[in-house]
Structures are given as structure tokens and as C-alpha cells.
Amino acid sequence: xxxxxxxxxxYRLLIISILIVSVFTHLWNVDGFPDIFFDEGIYMHRAxxxxxxxxxxxGSFYDHPxxxxxxxxxxxxxxxxxxxxxxxxxxxxxxxxxxxxxxxMGLLAxxxxxxxxxxxxxxxxxxxxxxxxxxxxxxxxxxxxRRILLDSILLPFLLLSIWTALQSKNSKHITxxxxxxxxxxxxxxxxKIPAFTTIPLVGxxxxxxxxxxxxxxxxWIIPVILIPSLWPVxxxxxxxxxxxxxxxxxxxxxxxxxxxxxxxxxxxxxxxPVLFGLGIAGIGFAVIRRDYLIxxxxxxxxxxxxxxxxxxxxxxxxxxxxxxxxxxxxxxxxFEKIPKRKISKDGMIVFVLGICAFGMIGLxxxxxxxxxxxxxxxxxxxxxxxxxxxxxxxxxxxxxWIFSNVFHKNNVPxxxxxxxxxxxxxxxxxxxxxxxxxxxxxxxxxxxxxxNSTQLVATxxxxxxxxxxxxxxxxxxxxxxxxxxxxxxxxx
Length: 492
Known about the structure:
The chain has 19 helices and 4 strands. It has 492 residues and is mainly alpha-helical. It is a multi-pass membrane protein. It comes from Candidatus Nitrosotalea okcheonensis.
């Protein structure tokens, strides 16, 4: 009994230590790294739309379901955001506006760490669980979980769905666990549609793990279908169902500007070569072992990414946990084949600690950089200008939600690209021309003409030339460049 208790306490201490490390890696310097990405501004704008009581869906553009912004708005509203911050317009108060939601993302990532441990522990045992959770918490790729993205929001719901499905086997609370699994997966899909690729995995776990398989599968599938159905139902209620059909079945399959699977695979490998290599090797090992959990999680999602064609590096988020688990299985099983127990045990400890130390050093180097100061300074500069109702502020969503929702500036389109579709109705313009704006020069003549018709009044820069962005671990900085050069321009 004492030996058993000592065993349990040892693993409990280890996972607590891993979670403490995860808190550090996901919350340290979230206001400074990474840069504020275009999409983060979009989701913050939508969350503010909900917070202002304007409904869950903004406008008639249906690119993603509305649970993500609703979830974020509920948490932010609970703390009285943004009014409770009393933003003054200086750079520090601007930084806090993004720090709060990024802390929420970091806490979700810590929860992900624990759920990975629980999933791997339930299916593979404590050794695999600890290795998997440790890899997730310290490897350099984990910095992408800091961004305010739908992928980061859906992940804990996806992981909780898988874990409760595994827990349902031989449980006295089987009905409740199966129903909870369905609700969580329904919410994951309701956050971002690609989560549907895990339906065969979780459904298979429910079906093959229980005797009342058809009854439980039916109970599970009901919330998986009904919860995401609220999205098209809302579009019907708003009279926008034709827009919903177009955006879901045409726009999402004809998007341009993204990368294919090969490109984002190379980006992953550049950012985190060790985890990418171990993860892919672990997937190959899973093929040999016919491991349905790993393959059923990884393969459908990657096939989906291949066929949609439009991808970005953070689309890997839903399968990073299973790559950590696959790597954990590979490492554990490989060392278990060593006949001498002491060599096997000590060798595995040294190997895992070595990988984690290597990853942690690279990650700390990354997350200690400052990639946001220019964006905060540019925002503060515009906020503190005397801008009347005869002036339009053109900027990316990174900035516009702050101008319109926090400081209540008028004539602020959601996105500068709206000038491609309708003219502005003021003679004066303040333009925030960041790298994203410059990339969009090829979208239409109006964007180029607007830039050329304005005069430069201020510039803000974040210098990344001091980092070797062609070498590990600083390759990741090539994905954090939206603050490297920002121009404030005016037309009077």
C-alpha cells in the first residue's frame, strides 16, 4: 500500500511540475511575443461585437461559426473588459488590451497540457502521459498557442471530448460521460468546422468501448450535430442563409493567399525540427502498431488540410497534441525494448530531459523577444491624435477594434480592404500601413492609390535583424513580422 501511494505521489508531483512549467511557457511575456496577428484583431472585434450586445454574428460574412467569439466575450465580460481597464491611450494601456485575452489563451494551453496527460495516461500509461505532456509544454512550436485564434479555443473542448470518451469505458457514469463527450465535440466543431475530422475517432471510441454501443453512439451524436447546427439556424433567422451557403461551400474552398500542406509542414519543421521529427516518426510507428487513437486523430485532419489547399502554420494546432503523444509512445516503447531495466529507465530519463532542455532553451529565447512594441506605439499614436468626424481611419483589424470599441472613434471600417468595395465618405484619412497592408497591394488598385495619396507622418519599427531568422530557434520570427515596419500616413 505504501509503495502504491509513493508511486502515485511521484507521478502527481511530476505532472504538477510540468504544469508549472507550462504556466511559464504559455504566459511569460504574452504582451511582447508574438506579434499581434491580423486574425487576432478579427476575433477580438467579433468578441467586442458580442460584448456590445449586437448579437453573435457580425454582418453577413460566414467564414466561421460564432461560438469562438461568444466564448471569448463571456469570459471578457465576466471581468468587465474593457471598461474595467480604464485605458488611457498610452502604450502600456494598449498592451493590456491584448494581454488579457492572451492570458486566457495561455490558461487554455495549460488546460491542454493537463488533458494531454489524462488522455495519454488513460490509453498508454503514466510514462507516455508524462513524456507527452512535457513535450507539449516546452517545445518551441507551443508559442503559437499564445495567439487569440479559434484553433486555440477549440482545442480544450476537443481534448475533453476525447478524454471523456475514453473514460466512459466500464464507467458507472457512462451516460453522462458519453453525453459530455458529444457536447464538447459539438462545441469544438461550433468553434471551427475542421474539428469535425475527429468525429470518426471519438465516435469509434464510444462505439467499440461499450456494450450498449448503438444506444450510446446515438446519444453522443445528437449534440455533435445539433450544437453546430445553431450556426445555419442563426443565418436563416437573420435572412442570410444564401450568404451562409455561399461562404461555407464556395468561399472556404476557393480562398487564395494561403499555403499548401507541404509549405506549412516545412514551416513546422523549421520552427520545431525535433518535435516535428519525433512526431512524424511516432505517426509512422503508430502505423506499424495499428494504433487507432493516433492514426484516427492525425490522418483525417491532415487529409482535410491537403484537400482544402488554403492553410496557415497555426492550422497544426489541433494535431500538435497527438504528435506529442505519438512521440511519447515512440520514445517509451523504444526504451522498453532495452533488456537491462536500469539502462532502459535511466536512458529514457536522460533522453527525455535532454530533448526537453533543448526545446525549453529554444522556446525561452523566442518568448523573451519583443515583437509588439511598434504595434502598441502605432495604436497609441493614432488614439492620441485629434481626429474629427470628417476623418476616416483605415487600418487592419489588429487596430480597428481598439479605435472603434475602446476609444469610440468614428468612421473606422473593420478592415482597410473595404475600400475595394465601397468608397470612403470623408475627405480626410488616417492610414495605418503595416506589413499586412503592403502585402495586399496586389488585391486592388484602390489600396495602392490610397497609400500613394497620403503623406507619411510617423513610423514605428521592431528590429528583427539582430536575430538569425534563418537558424533555429529564430525561424519562428519569420511568422511574427506584422510589427517590423508601420507607417502612419494622412490625407488632409
